[in-house]
Amino acid sequence: MSLSVSEAVTQTKSVRRKVLVSKLGLDGHDRGAKVIARALRDAGFEVVYLGVHKTPEDVAEAAVEEDVAAIGVSILSGSHLELVNDLLKLLRERGVNIPVIVGGIIPPEDVGELKKLGVFEVLTPGTPLKKVAEVFERACEVSGT
Amino acid sequence: MTDLEKLREKFSEWVNEVLQPTIKKAPEAKPRFLSEEGLEIKGLYTPLDTEGAGWDYLSKLGFPGAYPFTRGVYPTMYRGRAWTIRQYAGFGSAEDTNSRYKYLLSIGQTGLSMAFDLPTQLGLDPDDKLAWYEVGKVGVSMPSVNEMDLVFQDIPMDKISTSMTINATAIEILSMYVAVAESRGISRSLLRGTVQNDILKEYIARNNYIYPPRPSMRYATDLIIYAAKNIPKWNSISISGYHFEEAGATPAMEIAFTLADAIEYVNWVLERGMNVDEFAGQLSFFFAARTNLFEQIAKFRAARRMWAKIMRDRFNAKDPRSMMLRFHTQTAGVLLTAQQPLVNLIRTTLQALAAVLGGTQSLHVNSYDEALSLPTEESVKLSVRVQQVLLYESGVIDTVDPLGGSYYIEWLTDQIEERAWKIIDEIDRLGGMIKAIELGYPQREIARAAYEWQLRVERGEVPIIGVNTLVEEETPNIKILKVDPKVRERVILRLEQLRKERDSMKVRDTLNELRKAAEREDVNIFPYIYEAVKHKATLGEISKTLREVWGEWRAPEVY
Fold this sequence. Notes:
CATH architecture of chain A: 3-Layer(aba) Sandwich
Low-confidence stretches of chain A: 1-6
Number of domains of chain B: 1
Largest sheet of chain B: 5 strands, parallel
CATH topology of chain A: Rossmann fold
Helix content of chain B: 40-55%
Mean pLDDT of chain A: 90
CATH topology of chain B: TIM Barrel
Largest sheet of chain A: 5 strands, parallel
Strand order of the largest sheet of chain B: 1-10-9-8-7
Shape of chain A: globular
Helix content of chain A: 40-55%
Structural class of chain A: alpha/beta
Number of strands of chain A: 5
Number of helices of chain A: 6
Number of domains of chain A: 1
CATH class of chain A: Alpha Beta
Radius of gyration of chain A: 14 Å
Distance between the termini of chain A: 26 Å
CATH architecture of chain B: Alpha-Beta Barrel
CATH superfamily of chain B: Methylmalonyl-CoA mutase
Oligomer: heterodimer
Strand content of chain B: 5-15%
Shape of chain B: globular
Number of strands of chain B: 10
CATH class of chain B: Alpha Beta
Distance between the termini of chain B: 57 Å
Radius of gyration of chain B: 24 Å
Number of helices of chain B: 23
């Protein structure tokens, strides 16, 4: 049984809902990232949208600086395993526990790989926005724990 | 009573006596039928929607190969020459790509289309820190002329036409191609192909830019002018709507933003003292084909008619070739689903049909597995076969513009055209496309349309099989192409070798000359880049030189 986005919002007012959305790597296809950023904003999240051509360093640094509760990165170039691995490593090095959600063109066999690396959730094309908001909601709940 | 008045009378009789009673008994599936453009589609179209609306055959359609080219750019269209079967391909190292090209040619592909990896598109050598993750991933790595030579090993560059999806580093890549061809004794005047060179759409949708808009426009303009004088059979630009569609644009937005970009390019070249008919015949276009068949066909026809008008009336072109909107089509990648992937084959077949009925000059059909990864040889072969079924078995090529004169198609064509003109008028009002981009106008419109589309999908107003209707539990069982991780090492090793073996004094000199040319505004930088490329300067070194003079662009983020 899933809640509507607005119900989810009213039930979890105490959770800090500031998130970062970014492209990761050199890939410029930002339709997905922008739609997600906007949907999260409309669902009541505070969204920091970083934009395109961001390195793992850029994202880790911004996440710490902005003190976000969750990070969403979108990758369509096929470089997700290495990029995400480095992002997670950098977050660990900075001593923060911010859940990372990955979206984009991710082959089924890599979904498990990404989760093994420590990714909170993988969202592939066709995921409804309501589900996206729920995943970020859950990520915010466990953030920092 | 005129024929039209009689028709109007008979039509309202039919509505009252036949249609209304039927709808009362059996209501239609939904209260309103909306196209993807948001047009309300009626249940029936008749001459009242064309002739009745003051429609004139000669001014609206004319004949193929003649102004306004609505029915097609060539008099015989596919009866005379089939569209070019041109699958976008390239990955890994030069050797991987060479063998994929040979495979594609062996199964009946008739032109090549080169995909470059992101470092190549952004002017970074594979050993650059920023390039590390992406070498050979979405295309072939191309840091030097030596790699181009390997890609075209045993491929006849004088016989095949080659299209290159390259923008911010278009001159470097085209220079490599020309240098390799000339090293094989093939003159640049004989080379056929296309270089995308459409930097404006990068700022709007695709984001593979390097320099700020104005120096980038000078770069693109230099290529157009150089090609007009030296590589006459080459399309010096492929002005692209595809990426707008992929980013969310409606059909009217797609063609309007594309034509507005085209107007900007023409203005820049004219500004440099060229006559319009000296270069306009080498301008080409690139659009998407979606599954929504009729509206897509109307979109292509409207674009053709609009370009002819723009060239004749706005720019006073005299040569009919300058007025011809020749275009490549790719089926819409955003409509591929990761769910039930084989269903994508049915979608792409309809999309390809739209492109052919819309009069495309060349076609790429996406492969069914591309919502998951790069296509395999097997899936690409099916994409080529889709094209071959249309070409050899369907009979759609037997007559020119077979849907011309359909009341519905002509009404749709008029509607799309009208909407697109409104957008172009708005861009003119803002002061042209560069101004509009700086104000974020096209970016905002596209982002808004993308979001609205997503909401329509989620409300179930846009059914997508496997996503929001006819959903199945499935275990993914599909062969995935993976790029060999050793590609990076192999490419970097060869690059290090090249740096050791080349005449580094000569490289330094050519880069210095290039820097001086970039600092001035009254010289064409093409020959300077060509010299550097020929003397084995790398792509990254050339781009770095230009970055130092022109700076880099950081986009304002609009979502």
